[in-house]
Amino acid sequence: MGLAKVYGRAVVPGGPLYRGHRVEGGRIRILFDHAGDGLALRDGDMARTLVIAGPNGVFQPAQSAIEEGSLLVWHPDITAPKAVRYAWADHPAGANLINTAGFPAGPFRTDR
Known about the structure:
Layout lengths: L1 H4 L11 E8 L2 E7 L5 E3 L8 E4 L5 E3 L1 E5 L2 E5 L8 E4 L10 E3 L8 E2 L3
Antiparallel strand pairs: 1-2, 2-7, 3-9, 4-5, 4-8, 6-7, 8-10
């Protein structure tokens, strides 16, 4: 962050930060600031520590895909998603969402 803010360099200042979301049918698309050239995963093929809830408010482990610079999140049994949480724990072991600069995404929740 110092290179961007203090020294004025044109670099990504940090990890992806939740900017907003939109529901697209049975999925939720998560939008980020500071994604740089895109999102990536440190390891694996899906974001871990990611959960999704429907109208009943019960969170389930979510499936995900990186698409068009955003994170698409769903669960096969949730047809009307209402909320997503990522790394929403005191010690979110296994959180693996990063930007292409290698900075980790910050924890977030879409429900307030």
